[in-house]
Amino acid sequence: MKSNFKIALLGGTGHLGIGLAVRFAILGHDVIVGSRKLEKAKMKANEYNQILEKLGEKPTIKGLANEDAAKQADISVFTIPWEHAFATAEFLKQALKDKIVISPLVPMEKRGKTFYYSKLPEGSAAEKLATILDSKVISAYQTIPAEKFARLNEKFEWDVAVCGDNDEAKKIVIELTNQIDGLKAYDAGPLAVSSMVESLTPLLINIMLRNKLKDLGVRFV
Ligand SMILES: NC(=O)c1ccc[n+]([C@@H]2O[C@H](COP(=O)([O-])OP(=O)(O)OC[C@H]3O[C@@H](n4cnc5c(N)ncnc54)[C@H](OP(=O)(O)O)[C@@H]3O)[C@@H](O)[C@H]2O)c1
């Protein structure tokens, strides 16, 4: 695997985006924060760079509109709420053609006090993304608690199930993920099993809410 990737975090201005952006930048990857608005992307990139500088790292993160971020990247992560991700995918289809796209999307809804996994006709959010894009879609990161992940001084040991139909792309995502201290990635099978992984997130949230816990991830032991 090459040592340096250009990684775009589409909608990387939100909860999951910040942790991935800063952690990938510390590892020496070229990180681009994408947003619907260029100004917001630049503002967030500036904010993330300040975090890097405080850690004594070079402020290398760029902010671009999602389309330019997707065009420049080798690997793009859809750090966008699932309801909005598919329209964004239609819009970015050309820019993402033949590239690796990571889906952390979790379709879920709240009924009463309980969260439920929202089944999609395509099978899962990652599979729906794959029907829209001509890209190598890899499903990963659904069970990473974003807020704890964003706090760089936190210690954690979380496993990441990675699914996908392109073996080479899946291997790259597994190796990339394993570079992040505290994450251990496993090959969980083809994209067709992504719903199993996606549905772990509402399960984790329900356990947290009912047992007054925070930041639960998963470990396969
Ligand atoms: N939060 C978690 O703990 C967590 C953990 C694992 C996986 N995930 C998954 O990761 C994805 C991102 O979650 P998040 O919590 O980071 O989301 P978020 O903070 O709510 O939103 C991320 C970004 O999405 C963009 N966005 C919002 N509405 C949009 C629209 N209509 N069209 C296009 N972009 C839009 C916004 O960026 P701009 O305004 O800059 O465009 C926003 O900053 C979700 O699919 C979620 O299921 C989340």
Quick structural gist:
Helix content is about 40%, strand content about 20%. It starts with 5 loop residues before the first strand and ends in an 11-residue tail after the last helix. The chain is built from nine helices and ten strands.
Describe this protein's structure.
With 221 residues, the chain is an alpha/beta fold. It is globular, with a radius of gyration of 16 Å. β6 (108-111) and β7 form a beta hairpin. The chain has helices at 15-26, 38-54, 66-72, 82-92, 125-132, 146-150, 167-178, 194-198, 200-210, and strands spanning 6-10, 30-35, 62-65, 75-78, 100-103, 108-111, 114-117, 136-139, 158-164, 183-189. The strands form 2 sheets. The chain has an 8-stranded mixed sheet. It has a two-stranded antiparallel sheet with strand order 6-7. The chain has a single domain, classed as 3-Layer(aba) Sandwich (Rossmann fold). It contains 9 helices and 10 strands. NADP nicotinamide-adenine-dinucleotide phosphate binds next to α1 and α4.
